[in-house]
Amino acid sequence: MNRNTTAKKRLSVPAYLVIVILAIAVLSVIFLIVNYRRGSDYSYTLEGALNLSTWTENSSPIVLDKGWQFYPNQILTPEQIQRSELSLLTENTVLYPHYENVEITRDGWVNLGTDATLHSPIGNVAPMESFGIGTYRIVLQFGKNIDYATLNFPDIAQAATIWTNGKAVRHYGIASSDRKEYEPSEVCADIQIQPSDSGQIEIVINCANYSSPYGGIVCRPCVASTKSIETIRYSARLYLSILIVLWLAFLVGGFYISQTFNGKGKFYFFMLLFLFEILYEIFDPAVTLLPGSWNYLIRVTILIFINYWSVLFYSSLYPKGSSKLFDKLRFFEISFFSFLSTCYLLTYWCFPKFLYLKSSVTANMVLVIITSSYCIFRVFYMLHLHEHGHYLYTLSVIITTFMNFSVFVRTQYYIAITLHAFILIFFAMIFGSYFIMDYVKTFEKLSFHNKNLENAVDEKTKYIAKVNQDLLRNHEKLLENEEARKKMLSNVSHDLRTPITAIRGYVELMLNAKEPLSREQEVQYLKNIHTRSTQMEQLISDLVQLTRLESENDKLDIMPLSVKEMVHDLYSLYSAECEGTDKQVLFEAPQDDDLLIDGDAKKLLRVFENIIVNAMKYTKEDGIIRIICHRYDDPAMLGGNAVEVIVKDNGVGIPENEVPYVFDRFYRAENSGINKTGSGLGLSIVKSIMDKHHGKIWAESEEGKGSEFHIVFRASEFNFDEEPEDEE
Ligand code: ADP
Questions:
Q1: Ligand 1 in contact with 707 (CB < 6 A)?
Q2: Does the pLDDT of residue 725 top 50, yes or no?
Q3: Any idea of the CA torsion for 305, 306, 311, 315, to the nearest 10 degrees?
Q4: Do 160 and 171 contact (CB within 8 A), yes or no?
Q5: Count of Cβ atoms closer than 10 Å to residue 182 Cβ
Q6: Partners of 139 in the beta sheet?
Q7: What is the distance in A from the centroid of ligand 1 to the CA of 603?
Q8: Are 588 and 627 in contact, with CB atoms under 8 Å apart?
Q9: Positive or negative, the Cα torsion across 338, 341, 343, 345?
Q10: How far apart are CA 232 and CA 238, in angstroms?
Q11: Which end of the chain is more exposed for a tag (fewer CB within 10 A), N or C?
């Protein structure tokens, strides 16, 4: 890993810290807003009832957080209370001591609010006993047109009997016969009320709380239309259903795409954690009311599991076997949290009554704070160590912290569940997007590598095909060369044998002559021997020159040359030779242009001479040979700046199908005539020299009419006419 990446990785840690803290802060604020139910400024009727006459079924729910009467340490029937009320009116005394204007707070009956006033016939009432009982009462005055409404009590601690208009409509929990003990129960009540003809409804709630001063109504109740409570309940269930469907979709999607993840174990681990979170919501008493204390027990169990599972989840993120410190830390944290969670679970499952102690909430809080702080610490440590998986870690922290801390806030109210579920859906979407992005990224990477691989294979295939082709070509060339070698050997031996045989023939003639040969005969024989040996010498020198030209060592001696001058010298030579015969050699060249090229003078002389000699050789007695030198300005030819020499004759010509072969070694056209001396090597030497000069040579011919040989060179850049610059 290079330094830059390390620096980048380290820099991102504080950024993630800020994100997580902000997210937790935002969520806490949302919790507070949702769970804070504002009460209205109520007015009271003359009879002391809470005036709800303006409330209609379309109004929003009204929170009943004020105006309650509370009878501490007493379980009273509505009848008893009414009697007490009556005696207050008639005799100005109360039968049962109670507080008026009591506020419903989270602390239950230990905190009756600042406005509570005591009405007591005996002075001060006894303080709340550690085992508490008490009676709440409120009278609501609805408008005449209200037939039904729903009373929602999100949380009454443990056991309760609810009376409406003198009738006991609901019992929660079971009181012992001496009324000293109650079977604990989770009370989340929705009670349909039907106001009397006068629109009044009296609600009396007897509460009992097991061995704790923290009891009574602990979450503010509200009055809502039956319809709106139903709507909220269904939307809460709908949200939970969406959550479950999403979870299943992620599970199925994850199952298919997790093959590409680095750690698919982590994915399933997290899915299980998420499932616990959903179950936590499903076991909210407002959604599922299990009998007795089961709801609360299951919920707290899930919470402990979430805690424990988050520790296991973060443990799974440690790079395994990379360090002894990690192994020790993992062992420590798993043992510690296993022990802690087991203690909690054993306590609650063996002694469910502990659940209802106020201290149990504190104990749960301690567990959550320890676990969450540890997990946050762990995640930052992991972020510090690894550049990958930031999103996964951060999201996991937010979700688990969010769920773990929800224990602080009572959520048994449908709106809260809806919001909780909504936030979870939101997290699930982000989480899902993370995995999809991860998948897409992996997929893109794969396709990129795939493409690269395909390209590489393509390139290699092309390369191999080319190598193959080259090999084939080389093979063909080798075969051709072998063929050429054989042909050349046979040609050489044939071309050498012919003059040798002739020479030997003449020598034998001379040696074996029975009579002395005449002087003319002798001269004739010796001339023939001379011609044949010259022919042999020519052949051997041609062979030597060709071999030399083909070897790499034969370097050209390049210098600026005037083609016009060279060709003109040859013209002078050969036209002089033709003097006295019918043959003519003609020369054409531009007056004012030397036709400069860069080349090897010796070798080029061979080229021009060979072509001119051929023209002379393959024409009849009265042949005309024209030598034309000129500039060749066609851009298609050697870039447009060229010099051409054309040697034209009106001789025997070359058969059309043989023209392409005249530059091959030992090739002699059919019509070249057996009497004409020649090895068939001249033009192949010429071609080699031209190739070495990067020039062009080709023949055009018509049998019986004559031939044209074209020789083209790149013109020299050097200009003799230019004045050399003065050098100081
Ligand atoms: P050679 O020694 O036979 O002349 P070259 O290599 O010089 O060998 O020429 C190859 C063949 O090309 C000749 O044998 C001849 O058939 C043909 N050839 C070359 N120049 C001419 C020409 N000016 N007119 C007709 N045929 C020619």
A1: yes
A2: no
A3: 100
A4: yes
A5: 24
A6: 202
A7: 19
A8: yes
A9: negative
A10: 10
A11: C
- Token pair 């390369």 is found at 463
614 lines ligand 1 (CB under 6 A): yes
Instruction: Taking residues 310-339, report their average pLDDT.
Output: 78
Q: Which fold has domain 556-714?
A: Heat Shock Protein 90 (3.30.565)
DSSP string, 376-389: HHHHHHHHHH-STT
134 lines ligand 1 (CB under 6 A): no
Note the helical H segments in 406-518: 414-512
- The residue ranges of every structural domain in the chain are 1-35, 50-224, 231-437, 556-714
Q: Which amino acid is at 9?
A: K
User: Which atom of ligand 1 is nearest the CA belonging to 709?
Assistant: 23
- Name the residue with tokens 């707290």: 300
Burial class of 138 by CB neighbour count within 10 A (0 to 12, 13 to 18, 19+)? buried
Residue 139 sits at the vertex; the CA angle it makes with 134 and 144, to the nearest 5 degrees, is 155
The fourth-level CATH superfamily of domain 50-224 is Galactose-binding domain-like (2.60.120.260)
Distance 481 CA to ligand 1 centre (A): 22
Share of the chain above pLDDT 70, in %: 78
Side-chain-side CA neighbours of 79 within 13 Å: the count stands at 2
Count Cα neighbours of 32 within 13 Å in the Cβ-side half-sphere.
6
pLDDT number for residue 632 = 87
Å from CA of 67 to ligand 1 middle? 132
- Residue closest by Cα to atom 14 of ligand 1: 668
What is the reported pTM? Answer: 0.50
Which pLDDT belongs to residue 625? 95
Mutate to test the pocket of ligand 1, among 585, 618, 670 (most ligand atoms within 8 A of CB): 618
